[in-house]
Design a protein that fits this description.
Blueprint lengths: L4 E4 L8 E7 L3 H8 L13 E6 L6 E10 L10 E7 L2 H13 L3 E2 L4 H8 L5 H12 L3 H12 L1 H25 L10 H30 L1 E7 L5 H9 L17 E7 L2 E7 L10 H16 L2 E7 L15 E5 L17 E3 L8 H21 L7 H22 L4 H19 L5 H8 L7
Parallel strand pairs: 1-6, 7-9, 7-10, 10-11, 11-12
Antiparallel strand pairs: 1-2, 2-5, 3-4, 4-5, 8-9
Length: 447
């Protein structure tokens, strides 16, 4: 028998309505301790006006509405109760405290949804979509979460798992039987099916990459040589002294990020360590490594060059979307840069010259990233799901390679089983408790 858990399911500030949730076998009994006049059993799935009293003192806590759910009709798959109270924080907290006094315990983050997963009301893809719904900062993220809740991504994963099982069955048949047994494995068709699985997985990862800006914000990396003016540009764009600025090269040793909103688009600006190959100590070298990684993962790469020409711009990034020449207040630009097919903006952090142009370019490119995200047909979303999918794809590639190299079929079969296990990490059919703990620790308490 599970504990009865309780939590506030609405925001912490004043509101018209505040909801306290109970779930677990015995929730109705806990409810009766706050409301002795409640019928046994209470009316289910309709609102009932109730007077809530403290179980120990009898003090009136609120006149509220109660909703009672039988296990087969509740979110968690358990006996559940919701108190819809007046939304003052003291009122709602008082009702929660009374529920705890009456025998419930405080819910942990995500515990209601975790119970829904355990009871089969949701799979893990849908459960993580619930978390995304509570944190989404764009309508595209909301749309992706709603689609996951409706089950389309889970269905696509199930289809791929079914195909992999069919392929594995053909391989096992070839291993266990010979043609003399009357069992003929169609390995050629199985290989074609495996190739189709590989293409689908690659498409899923590409779509997840396109969606990421809508979930985590558009990433902008400011990269360039030490003392090129990256930190000054970073502070000027934000309108605050967020990053340390100094004439000494290598002042920025780690990533410094800040969220800003450009025309409604959430944008993370990252100031990075100066890029140079010679003379960097161990700590600075680690900062350079992180800077290069930030550039690889960014949606927009801005190459920052000292406009006075006194600082060598260093190597041009592998990809870039915008060039910013700094220190325009010190005279006409002197820095020489290779011909590029992206906008070049001359700026001064001190006078503000060119900053509006930079913001305009960033806004346009951020909106383009979000537009691409909105077009993505998404199956996997967060980092955890994408990591599991990459592992599944690597196992499929290993199976394909083993087949191509005429390796023993046992190698192919083992790789196929690993791929199925990794796909099970996505939908929750193959998970250990530690992974579940990490997933649900990111949820809010009321979910």
């Amino acid at each position: 028998m599970r504990d009865v858990i309780a939590a506030i399911a609405t925001g912490s500030g004043p509101a018209a309505i505040g909801i306290v949730r109970l779930s677990g076998e015995g929730s109705w009994e806990v409810a009766r301790r706050l409301c002795p006049d409640l019928p046994d059993p209470p009316p289910v799935r309709r609102m009932t006006r109730v007077r809530l009293r403290h179980p120990a003192t009898g003090r009136l806590l609120d006149e509220a509405l109660g909703v009672f759910f039988a296990p087969e009709a509740s979110y968690t798959g358990e006996e559940s109760v919701e108190w819809h109270c007046h939304g003052g924080p003291l009122v709602v907290q008082g009702v929660l405290s009374a529920c705890l006094e009456a025998g419930a315990r405080a819910a942990r983050p995500g515990e209601f949804t975790r119970r829904a997963l355990a009871s089969g009301r949701l799979d893990l893809v849908q459960a993580e979509a619930v978390s995304l719904m509570t944190q989404a900062g764009t309508t595209t993220a909301v749309d992706a979460a709603l689609e996951a809740l409706q089950g389309r991504p889970s269905q696509e994963i199930a289809e791929v798992k079914e195909t992999l099982l069919d392929v594995l069955a053909e391989v096992e048949a070839a291993l266990d039987h010979s043609e003399e047994d009357g069992v003929v494995a169609d390995l050629e068709a199985a290989r074609d099916a495996l190739d189709e699985v590989r293409r689908r997985m690659e498409d899923w990862l590409a779509s997840a990459r396109r969606l990421r800006p809508a979930i985590a914000g558009v990433r902008v990396a400011l990269v360039g040589a030490p003392n090129a003016g990256k930190s000054s540009l970073f502070n000027a764009l934000l309108g605050q002294a967020r990053a340390l600025v100094d004439d000494e090269p290598g002042t920025t040793r780690d990533l410094v990020g800040e969220l800003m909103v450009l025309a409604g688009a959430p944008v993370w600006i990252w100031d990075t360590a100066g890029l140079r190959q010679m003379g960097a100590g161990r700590v600075e070298a680690e900062g350079i490594r992180r800077a290069l990684q930030a550039a690889r993962e960014a949606d927009i790469v801005v190459w920052v060059v000292d406009g006075t020409g006194q600082v060598d711009p260093g190597p041009m990034p592998d990809r870039l979307d915008l060039v910013v020449r700094t220190r325009r207040d010190l005279g006409p630009p002197q820095a020489r840069i290779p011909p590029v097919e992206v906008p070049v903006v001359d700026t001064s952090a001190r006078s503000g010259t060119g900053l509006d142009q930079v913001r305009g370019h960033l806004t346009r490119m951020a909106q383009q990233s979000l537009h691409r995200a909105a077009q993505a047909r998404v199956v996997v979303m967060g980092d955890r799901q994408q990591d599991a999918l990459r592992d599944a794809l690597a196992a499929v590639a290993e199976a394909w390679e083993a087949w191509s190299q005429a390796s023993p079929l046992e190698v192919t079969a083992a790789a196929l089983r690993r791929s199925l296990e990794h796909l099970g990490e996505i939908d929750g059919t193959h998970l250990v408790e530690e992974i579940l703990d990490r997933v649900f620790s990111r949820f809010c308490v009321g979910k």
